[in-house]
Amino acid sequence: DDGEKNVFGVWNNPEGTGLEPQGLVEKVEKIKTIVLPKSLEAISGSCFMHLPSGKSINIPEKFVENVMELAYNLNWKKVTISPKHPLYSITNDCLLSKNKKELYAILTDKSKVSIPNTVKKITGRTRLNYATKALYIPKSVTKIEQFALSSARPVRVSISKRNTHYGVEKGSIYSKKTGRLVLGYISKDGVLDVPDTVTKILEGSYVGQVVKKIIIPKSVKKIEEFTIDFRMKKLTVICKRKTPPILMKERLEVTFSYP
After folding, report:
1. Are 139 and 107 spatial neighbours (Cβ–Cβ below 8 Å)?
2. Distance, CA of 225 to chain centre
3. Core-most of 111, 142, 158, 203, by most CB within 10 Å?
4. Quick one: how far is CA 218 from the chain centroid?
5. Are strands 181-185 and 205-207 parallel, antiparallel or unpaired?
């Protein structure tokens, strides 16, 4: 994205000097509300790149293409949508399907987010904003797709006790139905302590940054994939089983340590 200009003409200098031109950067910072025209149908991926958080924006009726670009690396103070929009709706600063049953994105710059109790599915493209520190999932959610809710920082997740499909333990989300690790919590000191309620680790999502240690409980019988290779740094994997879990893919190279 270095060198590519956003809609205001601001760009990030690849030589590491920051956003330029400085005079224009200062003007953009003062903007509080962005009004998109009624005729707008789509935006480019770079349209609002490098935009400071805390601004408000609207989604007009005909804007149906690339709407998700509003969620990537952007924290909006407020997002409104035309009630006539054919595909999406907004509740609690969350971008939902028109019938409010599917969650696609979290748009707010608030630190605490509550997923609306109309949501049944959290789609795999749903990402947590950098501003998100706490997330609440209601009992209505019956499906969390793989790769959903990832974040580059630790996020405190809570789930309704009446949710029969998912639970939280040691900061991680697990499936009560299948034993799958849904969202792995990497602590600030780089530890992923997999809950005893998990029986299998598939490709999935994680909240946190560099993982230095993974603790595998006795309950985990197989590991199909680790998707956190890019966050690994001098990784230690501690296995609490007498025999290591079955590695489902030959290319998985995991060296286990035993307590």
Report:
1. no
2. 19
3. 142
4. 28
5. parallel
What's the one-letter identity of residue 115? I
Q: What is the pLDDT of residues 31-65, one digit of tens each?
A: 999 999 999 999 988 899 889 888 999 999 999 99
In which region does residue 123 sit, left (phi positive, over 0), alpha (psi from -120 to 50) or beta (all else)?
beta
**CA-wise closest residue to 120 among 106, 94, 134, 100:** 100
Q: Are 151 and 128 in contact (CB under 8 A)?
A: yes
Token pair of 90 as six digits: 């907004």
Q: How far apart are CA 156 and CA 112, in angstroms?
A: 9
The DSSP result for 224-257, as a single string, is -----GGGEEEEEEEE-SSSPPEESSTT----EE
Indicate the DSSP class of residue 210.
Answer: -
Spatial separation of the C-alpha atoms in residues 87 and 256, rounded to whole Å: 47
Give CA–CA dist 20/192, Å, rounded: 39
Q: Which pTM does this prediction carry?
A: 0.88
